[in-house]
Amino acid sequence: MRAYHLAVGLTFALIGLGIWSLLLLPEMQGKPAIGIFLLLLIGALLLGSAYAILRRLRRPLHHELSVSDSGLHIRTPCSWMLAGARQDTSIAWSEIVPSPDGGCDVETLFSTSKSIARDLVFWRRNAQGEIKMQRIPWQRFSRLTFANGEELKRALLLRLASKPGFRFAADVFVAARVNPVDWRPMRAPMRMQSLSLLASGALLTAVCLSMDTHQPLLQRSWPLLAVLLACALGSMLLWCCLFPDLRQSIRFLPEGDSALAKPCQDEKTADTALKHPREKR
Question: Whole-model pTM above 0.70?
């Protein structure tokens, strides 16, 4: 964990300093203000992240996480890297209930309105009988935190999938890198998302740097809007072509039903019904 913090922190620092050094080049004179501001912002974010990561080297983090027959137990210190405060939680499988609003029973949501990290979200009935949302940061199950992080993710999802009729948002399996059909590793969707983001960011940066500063602001905005729309549509079409089964919610049939059902309709949404995961283990 300490080596990971060191490597990531130094990488962020070098990239941030490299981006800021570009502003000293003579070729940057006369470039549009929006492009220069974008470079300043990206460099500042990388350097700030590098500082926050490297200062953790003094206090290595210790985590405990177990998935047992009785439930899920998490004990971890606060960590800026893992997007969450100190947590010591035990959740019995019997406490996990369907979503009260009729939506997906298991899904992922952004940790905060300003975060790019996601939490695994499901619903839990507490001792007072109240049903409340339970959030667990996916980073807690990272291989960088636990050597068997991928196995922990799979074990947790298998337990949740054994709940009768539970519906999963498809992005749960994308974020976990687990194929819901055979429960084997599935890395292609996440790689495709990462490559799409990198390509879109590079294209937007190139457009910003190539803009003519003498043009009116409204006229300079059209190329940016066109590139944003093209990137969004291109990513969506590519996803539909490569991963058509990951565009709708997923639920698992009870043991003894057909091995693989066709997409079906229910009262709320279209979803894909798959064989009970215990028969796929």
Answer: no
